[in-house]
Amino acid sequence: MALAALVFVACEQQKVTLLTLSDNTLQMTVGDMSIIDVEPNEADIVWSSSDELVATVDKGIVTAVGVGYASIRATLGSSYAECQVYVVGTKGETLSLTPAIVPLKKGETYQYTYTSTYDVPLTWTSSNEEVATVSEEGLVTALKGGNAVITLSNGLEELTSRVAVDHTWGEYVLVWSDEFDGATLNTQNWSIEVNGSGGGNQEKQYYTDRTENLRIEDGNLVIEARKENYNNREYTSARINSREKRAFKYGKIEARIMFPKGGGTWPAFWMMGNDYSKVGWPKCGEIDIIEHVGNQPRMASFATHTPYKNGTKGNNWSSRSYMDGLEEAYHVYGIEWVEDDYNGMDRIHFTIDGERLATVMEDADHVDDNYYWPFNKEHFIIINLALGGSMGGTIDDSIFDSPVLMKVDWVRVYQREELD
Length: 420
Fold this sequence. Notes:
Number of strands: 36
Radius of gyration: 34 Å
Low-confidence stretches: 1-14
Helix content: under 10%
Structural class: mainly beta
Mean pLDDT: 93
């Protein structure tokens, strides 16, 4: 009988060493070098790059040589680990997206033009999907008036574009006014300032709440500037504001005013952000609807002040118009303060008797940034008659031989609603 031989074969299982890298992903700029550490750090580890035109590697030292993508591999026997390296140019341009601003009307669509250096999935997002949505292929659909920031990302870098959808506005309607028809100032609308601080502009007056300086008379708010010694000042006048009582965001803000004449007078109708008590000036923002100085009888001045550009820095936006008949005659001074008026940017138009004479616009590169444009929030109204100071200049005391009066017939605010 034949015996079957039993043969036992002993097989030795090869041990696999697991490698780990200090970085799984690197973003580099052409010319940069970076070190990738490996554990365990064995002498016979082999390093390689999937594309040496993008990145080279020597003993874990990676050098970025060209824009693109490369996989850096560390190999030990049958074990390996990889680091994905994305190399950008000196300007960081791995994506392109055009244009920077897309103006649309409700219901319209727009297909973005874009490129990507890397063969990786792209992500599209909208900052405000009530205004505009974007598809996975970069197709935008405009839904509602306003701004939406569209972001294109490849996971390492991102680019943005702004979609500005036109608003459809109704007609302006009167939402608030003070006609100054009562016997006294309506304190539900206004506060009277009492101080001799000089308004921060080295002004010479002391503001009082006395009827000698402030009163309602013949359907007008009357502010009278006087030459008299009062609390260590040589002049008195008045200033009122609507802070924490009446504040507005956007619309037409107008007043029918008669300015006095005479060197040293500085009447103004203006606005400041209603958060003034919290953030101060100039963070609150300031809109000078109209300023006039008696030393320049034909001059009407319009200005804004922001944290970025303001009078303290000497770089604030301002504009001036020159015309006859500004003094001792009524004119309607106002602004039309419009949300997203041009390509999604706010604008403020300055007007006299309904005629637009100057316009200031939000910065296209800083939309909704309060440092550059703090005019997307409520502002309160200020009316005053200053004397002297940095803008009023030298005071001619002979003007007080007759009453020096600023008269305000009314202040009115108009706003409009967006139509569906």
